[in-house]
Amino acid sequence: MDVTWAVKYITEFLGTAILIILGNGAVANVELKGTKGHQSGWLVIAVGYGMGVMIPALMFGNVSGNHINPAFTLGLAISGYFPWAQVAPYIIAQLLGAIFGQALVVASHRPYYLQTTNPNAILGSFSTIVNTDDGSKKSHAASMINGFVNEFIGSFILFFAAMAMTKNYFGAEVVKYAATRGVDATQIQGKVAIGSHINAGLAVAHLALGFLVMALVTSLGGPTGPGLNPARDLGPRILHFLLPKSVLGEHKGDSKWWYAWVPVVSPILAGIAAVALYKMIYG
């Protein structure tokens, strides 16, 4: 699909907002006191984040690439798959989308924020937190190490699998074969000839991506909460810091800025490594 870069920025904004609404919205439903989903369990959160990735991918995958993740955008740019001139606009759109999506989560759950007495439950519906933190410097150091390792492993699997599934989807070989037979996929005749293979294959890849996120949340989300995305953590954390207690309740705690670098730096490094490995294997 041929679209302007402005449209791509808009879809990155919308895709990231949807991710936050469905993902962090699920966390709010489970963690905030008084909701109908209160204490309904981790699988609810996993489904929320899985759908939060899958649905924007199906909506915008053929528009902007549906990065919705600064670490993925940077990894693609460093490996030569994405133009550097568009990195900053993409990341800005993603961060703003995350903040906007979180604002909608707060607006829809405000009565339950006011009822919640656990500050970690409030912050956890915005950003990642570490359960091993007891407030001491020793626990801070241990939490950052554990969080960094956890975020790196999960992010690496996410980015490498996302590249492998969406670039080598069922039907990709058909496209390559058609090119050897003189079919130009950029022209309308070529699109008609192989379009069904491309669309079906990419749809399967995007569905699989959603299930992958569900699996990552259930398997690696326990230590810190599902991060794997600098925008998903940093944008909502900024909003948590800015919103007053009149909005989030008297039990709003600190935003734990001492930990904030971990879910930003670790996924970025994982994204760079994952895309580099993809390039080495698949070319």
TrEMBL record:
SUPFAM superfamilies the record matches: Aquaporin-like (SSF81338)
Keyword terms of this UniProt record: Membrane, Transmembrane, Transmembrane helix, Transport
Record field: transmembrane: 6-30, 42-61, 81-107, 200-220, 258-278
InterPro entries named among the record's database cross-references: Aquaporin-like, Gla, MIP, MIP/Aquaporin, MIP_CS
GO MF entry, a single one: glycerol channel activity
Family note: Belongs to the MIP/aquaporin (TC 1.A.8) family.
Protein name, per record: Glycerol facilitator-aquaporin
Organism annotation: Streptococcus anginosus SK1138
Gene: gla
